[in-house]
Amino acid sequence: MTAPLHRPRPGTPDTQQGMRRRNLSRVLHAVAAEGPLSRAAVAQHIGLTRAAVSTLVDELIRAGLLEELGPQRPGGVGRPGSALMVSDRGPAGFGAEVGVDHLAVCAVDLRGTVRARAERRVSNRGRAPGPVLRDLAALINQVNGEAAAEGLRPAGLAVAVPGLVARGSHTVVRAPNLDWHDTDLGALLPAHLPWGDDVPLTVDNEANFGALAELWLTADRPADFLHVSAEIGIGAALVVEGELLRGARGFAGELGHVPVRPEGPACPCGSRGCLEQYAGEEAVLRAAGLAPGADRTALLAERADAGDAATRRALRGAGSALGIALTGAVNLLDPRAVVLGGALSRLAPWLLPSLERELTRRATTPADGVLISQLGSEGPLLGAAHSARRTVLDDPMGSVRA
Amino acid sequence: MTAPLHRPRPGTPDTQQGMRRRNLSRVLHAVAAEGPLSRAAVAQHIGLTRAAVSTLVDELIRAGLLEELGPQRPGGVGRPGSALMVSDRGPAGFGAEVGVDHLAVCAVDLRGTVRARAERRVSNRGRAPGPVLRDLAALINQVNGEAAAEGLRPAGLAVAVPGLVARGSHTVVRAPNLDWHDTDLGALLPAHLPWGDDVPLTVDNEANFGALAELWLTADRPADFLHVSAEIGIGAALVVEGELLRGARGFAGELGHVPVRPEGPACPCGSRGCLEQYAGEEAVLRAAGLAPGADRTALLAERADAGDAATRRALRGAGSALGIALTGAVNLLDPRAVVLGGALSRLAPWLLPSLERELTRRATTPADGVLISQLGSEGPLLGAAHSARRTVLDDPMGSVRA
């Protein structure tokens, strides 16, 4: 990981104060990504003088965000007394996920280590937001208790949902597989949390958080890729130069309703022949002659692995449809790579051949390759937690003041 | 137009010098967009103190980029002596266009006014790059002569081409309708120019420059839109938060080869059922039973206007195919609007009804509307010239030193 780009906001002039904030962030990001680092190494990393870096480092140590490794600590650093690490106490990023079949919460410390995690299998399909969010809050409280016992406090909470979230809001505009509409988590969730409104809350689509997890947590991931994830729905997220393309209203990435065969089967969305009608989990189960159950992906993987012809044929068809829809996406977006995440990563062995055949044959300038996520279905939760963690790295003093 | 976002480059720390450069640019952009402006008005616009702005203004006046309107000049400004305008002499942006059926060149001054323009109708299809670029250089020299007579000198030359250009290069990787492959304009063009390599050269796809022209020159254009342009090929460009999405290799926007009906007619690109097979000019002429000629758009518009049933039916079919391909694009990208440019703008009356029907019926979250370009086929040339002009506004002292 390299230090990210910190941009002054549009329209605002550069100021000394803004410059200092961005440089504090650069120091903290450099140590988080590459630490332990000496002050001299930090200076070299970010291209400031050693004197300037020392002042910034001192401020971050006083704030409890950096710590100096004492000479008693072993390690390969030349002068161990001067090596810096980000703190493993203090602010932590909390991530939560509302899935169709489960709820999950975790806390990562500033070093990026998961320090507490809780999960509950529960069918949320068609369940009202109130009870779902009460259950989620119970998991958050449990994780918070465990984290507090280790000296961690939440710097932010990010919630991943399987639906469209209006940009810059906490509102799930539409989550068809939960049957939620215009659900404002900012109004509903804080009442159940010990900290109420005192910890910043973010809500975003699970595919977006999944893509951020790929970007931040997988070695050698390019900075430009299209991340496709599927469970019941099929979502995508585009990362451009290391940042999410969210769309004007936050709704970018609706790959599941790209028309594959415009005169194909009717889709509940009102269109016909959408990708989900060919490659959504329920469509694949139907094509394979299997009944939809709790762990759909496991069932498909198991049958395909056992050599079941109908399942394999259904997955080949899903792969072709994905290849056709992705041809359009690759032609439009020119990503460096396509990454298959979520349930798709587990089914990749049977999807990939037909998917790649369509893409190679059709795309004007095919991406360098189709990669398989190593994070799988854990991606969105990790992406959410790391996104909350990174708000501290992006504006260290903002989080201390808060 | 508002002052754009100026970002320090990724990985580089903020410095005093970088800050000063960005603030000089903010001042020049503000006066270019809103001038004449007093120093106080500039200060208010960009949020710096009046004293800081005055120093920056003095530097820009010394460099000949700003001028002070004397008290003898009429105008509505309170204290006319203090009103600032960008200069209409000195650096100019040169734009050039290599079309399938024409070549064009223009020069715009820092105020954005076209000061010289030349065009030549010539069929470039299948013509070797050498002769085409010699003809283009002759037009550039003609425009340069006219511009020089008015005290203008080229600050940059930007060339629009109907093909894929590798990002950050001068190389046309593929221009099917010219039959150019891996053509490096940086190696071929400067030899024919009076300034050789001394003026910065940019080469980009015509759809990209068309989209930039929409963004910069059309009032009330949103900062997030998908620009679709068509002549023989169909291209698109996506503007996100006021910047082009270029794709990892510079190839984003290949809307023409998005699959509309995956089992449809074979396309020279190797795929089947691409959008161009339904909505490219030649496909539409064929469907209308018309012979391809020199001014294809005019012929189609004339026939449709005269009520020719076959032509109208062919345009309705093209509109439907555009609507299906744009559904995928809108679902993936969530633009605020779709803008039809190039030949499409002239044919819009007959394309729009079927296009909008498909889009409304199919898109998960339709854009706010389909808009028609007012620049039409002049867009790419203007976008190129203004892109060269804006390199001066973006880094005023860089252009003076050069």
UniProtKB/TrEMBL annotation, chains A, B:
In its UniProt entry, what is this protein called? ROK family transcriptional regulator
What residue stretches are annotated with the HTH marR-type domain?
26-68
The record's GO molecular-function terms, alphabetically, read: DNA-binding transcription factor activity
The cross-references to InterPro entries, in alphabetical order and at most eight, read: ATPase_NBD, HTH_MarR-typ, ROK, WH-like_DNA-bd_sf, WH_DNA-bd_sf
Pfam families per UniProt: MarR_2, ROK
User: Gene3D superfamilies under this entry?
Assistant: 3.30.420.40, Winged helix-like DNA-binding domain superfamily/Winged helix DNA-binding domain
Source organism per entry reads Streptomyces xanthii
Q: Where is this region: Disordered?
A: 1-20
Tell me the protein family, please. Answer: Belongs to the ROK (NagC/XylR) family.
User: PANTHER family annotated for this entry?
Assistant: BIFUNCTIONAL UDP-N-ACETYLGLUCOSAMINE 2-EPIMERASE_N-ACETYLMANNOSAMINE KINASE, ROK (REPRESSOR, ORF, KINASE) FAMILY
- Which top-level group of life is the source organism from? Bacteria
